[in-house]
Design brief:
Length: 473
């Protein structure tokens, strides 16, 4: 067994690395794992069970020598310094043509730096987003690899074997050059933040604004998961709302502190969207609402000083009708969120020379990942019809879906305003739609103001040229 040349090497046998290695073993991919912790290295073999070509080791030399050439190895270590440290320790043992895949949520400029540094030594470096958490890694994640096109062929059979499948199609595809894979995963997470915020706002309006009971709420999400909203995040929300806290007997979710944490990928999405000048207001709002949640003491103080007397404002009494309106509004806002993320990917692909095919992105997001949803199939078809589609809202079918739901979105937001329930991500989604479909925006006035106080000049609607006016003479 020890002379076996393993198909794949896994560095880091924590939750993600171990589960992905076991997934490989289940698909008859021979895999050797490296971890400095002997217990983790040994656990890999026992967990895999008999009959699998799996080995764990704590020796980098043994690890590298046991991988079939050109070697394919994946790092599943925390993003940042640990990635550089792992590369530095393995590099002296590697040969030109070998491939290192970083499977963590690395910041995409770090990946570009590593690609360049390693290319000098003849090593191919791939940044690959992996989505689906622990369960996804074990039973089928969505995988977003970017790097050298030819080198990908060495990785393809393994990745296609372990990825989630939708209609027998694997949720992995070569995405593009350099940091394309990490960039796509970053935007995936931005969309994830947006949809999570939309779900949280829905929960707030129904529970605090309209006094839905916990049982009613749980039923709403479970029913929605049988509709056009069917998705991983809606599904798990139904399950979360059902869970009882054993200590208090209350629903567990109501016992959880409302200070949200984050690891940064949503913020990176927003920051980079600003750099690229792509509006992603729902994602921005999701990031800022997590920030708002941290000001707990101030919010408690303000709640006393500025009480919400409008919470008891009248609301329509037909609950079925309300739930339907809410479902339409949710679909509307969710599509607007995906549209923003996809538009960002389109601009980024151009700016960073990724060569992204958006139909491939939509295709591999249909299964395995956190933002998987039935609507991704519509997106895939939209990009298949027109690979140059600038925005999903311009696809006739998706546009019609939005038109059909916009009035209900307005009705829900009016209700939220009357009740003093904050729904900024819904509002951002609706305003995005309203702005995007406005032939004219009031930014002519902004141009006039800039020219008034700063002589910044303006262009005219009726003729070419750059103009400046002495406004106050
Ligand atoms: C995934 C998730 C995963 C992770 C997020 C959490 O696709 O599997 O997105 O990558 O759970 O990074 O992000 P925050 O901690 O920032 O919410």
């Amino acid at each position: 067994m020890n002379n076996l040349q393993y198909e794949f090497g896994m560095v880091g046998l924590g939750v993600m690395g171990r589960n992905l290695a076991l997934n490989m073993a289940d698909h008859a991919v021979s895999v050797i794992g490296l971890d400095l912790d002997p217990a983790k290295a040994a656990a890999l073999e026992t967990e895999a069970g008999a009959g699998k070509q799996v080995r764990g080791t704590t020796s980098a030399e043994e690890f590298i020598n046991a991988i079939r050439r050109p070697r394919a190895l994946m790092l599943l270590v925390p993003a940042g310094k640990p990635v550089d440290a792992s590369i530095a320790s393995l590099l002296p043992l590697l040969e030109p043509g070998d491939i290192i895949v970083d499977g963590g949520n690395s910041y995409f400029p770090d990946t570009d730096r590593r690609v360049t540094e390693l290319a000098d030594k003849g090593i191919h470096f791939f940044g690959m987003g992996i989505s689906g958490g622990e369960k996804g890694a074990r039973f089928g994640p969505s995988m977003m690899p970017g790097g050298n096109r030819e080198a990908y062929e060495r990785l393809r059979p393994t990745f296609e074997a372990v990825a989630a499948k939708v209609n027998a199609e694997p949720c992995v595809s070569y995405l593009g050059n350099g940091s394309a894979g990490n960039y796509v995963k970053m935007v995936h997470n931005g969309i994830e933040y947006g949809i999570m915020q939309l779900i949280a706002e829905t929960y707030d309006l129904l529970k605090r604004g309209l006094n839905f009971s916990d049982d009613e709420l749980q039923r709403v999400f479970q029913q929605w998961n049988q509709t056009e909203l069917q998705s991983f995040l809606i599904e798990i929300t139904g399950e979360i709302l059902q869970k009882t806290d054993e200590e208090t007997g209350n629903r567990l979710v109501s016992m959880i502190s409302d200070r949200a944490r984050s690891k940064g990928t949503g913020k990176w999405t927003s920051q980079n969207a600003m750099d690229l000048q792509v509006p992603v207001p729902t994602i921005d709002t999701a990031v800022l609402m997590r920030d708002m949640s941290k000001y707990k003491e101030e919010r408690v103080q303000a709640a006393k000083l500025l009480p919400n007397h409008t919470l008891q404002a009248d609301a329509p009494t037909d609950r079925n009708e309300l739930v339907n309106q809410m479902r339409h509004a949710f679909y509307f806002a969710m599509i607007a969120t995906y549209a923003q993320g996809m538009a960002q990917l389109r601009v980024a692909s151009e700016a960073y020379n990724y060569g992204l095919q958006l139909q491939e992105v939509a295709k591999i997001w249909r299964g395995g990942c956190i933002i998987r949803a039935v609507c991704l199939e519509d997106f895939r078809q939209a990009y298949e019809k027109n690979s140059e589609l600038p925005n999903l809202l311009l696809d006739p079918k998706i546009g019609q879906d939005m038109m059909d739901r916009q009035q209900d979105t307005r009705a829900i937001l009016k209700l939220a305003i009357d009740k003093g329930i904050p729904m900024p991500a819904f509002m951002a989604s609706l305003s995005y739609f309203d702005a995007y479909r406005s032939e004219t925006l009031p930014t002519n006035l902004i141009q006039a103001q800039r020219d008034y106080f700063g002589a910044h000049t303006y262009e005219r609607t009726d003729r070419e040229g750059i103009f400046h006016t002495l406004w106050n003479v």
